[in-house]
Amino acid sequence: MDLQARVADELAQKALELAEEAGDDDIIDEIKKVIGTSSTTLEEAYMTAVRVRRAETRALGLLAQKRAALRGTVD
Question: Can you give the pTM of this predicted structure?
Fold first, then answer.
């Protein structure tokens, strides 16, 4: 993973964590705006990382539900 992708993913993870903790998704956009003033390339990578991490969270949640349902019918 190159520097830009690493930085973008790290920022995305931290922003998502804080947004969830605070119950405020505007944090994601605030970080996006700050990044965008200096580097539109990093801004795009950050938003891609945010979307990927959100998709990952939803997919893992669905897998957990499916696993729980399977165990519920097997037990």
Answer: 0.87
